[in-house]
Design a protein that fits this description.
The protein is of the alpha/beta class. Helices cover about 30% and strands about 15% of the residues. It is globular and about 50 Å long. The protein starts with 19 loop residues before the first strand and ends with a helix.
Length: about 180
């Protein structure tokens, strides 16, 4: 979970060809999947590949996943137990609402990180540190489907979205990390 020292040597590959990989990281947020589907429907299926990384406690039936992928050939499901770093090395864009995977994505400076404004603000904990990350330019917070769409289509492959690796987790970040967790 984006801990200090863990990501000193990240492997931030740039996929020079192929579809833009958009990883949607779930923490079982209400409506996150539906927001992804609305986005998928607006974008070119040949240009974008969506990977929905489930939360470890999230369960989908094989039948439901097959039904969804038959309707949307550019959606793949990833179980919640896969190491997030394996996904991040292949990702171009990461989208989440309050998942710790958002923090895991920060050291990958060529991965654009988009955070959906938390629809359950105040009900599930204090995630105000996302505002700090937005103000520093490390992430982009969006408030609705239009802003989400705009941020995804403005993605530029190879661009550095954070100029300093581990900006949020400096070497003396133990106190900040414990406060966050």
């Amino acid at each position: 979970v984006g801990k200090p020292y863990v990501y000193d040597n990240v492997n931030c590959k740039v996929n020079s060809s192929g579809p833009i990989v958009v990883s949607v990281i779930s923490s079982r947020e209400k409506e996150l999947f539906e927001k992804m589907i609305r986005l998928v429907e607006k974008l070119d299926k040949k240009k974008y590949l969506f990977v929905y990384k489930m939360h470890p406690t999230e369960k989908w039936s094989d039948k439901d996943m097959i039904n969804i992928t038959e309707k949307n050939s550019n959606i793949q499901f990833l179980d919640g137990f896969t190491d997030i770093r394996d996904l991040l090395e292949l990702s171009d864009i990461v989208i989440g609402e309050r998942s710790s995977g958002i923090l895991d994505a920060l050291p990958y400076n060529k991965v654009k990180v988009i955070v959906l404004r938390d629809s359950n603000k105040g009900l599930v904990g204090d995630f105000s540190f996302f505002d700090e990350l937005d103000e520093s330019g490390d992430i982009v917070i969006v408030n609705n489907d239009k802003e989400l769409y705009d941020e995804v289509v403005m993605y530029s492959r190879g661009k550095e979205y954070r100029d300093k690796i581990n900006h949020y987790w400096p070497y003396d970040a133990e106190k900040k990390f414990k406060e966050t967790v």
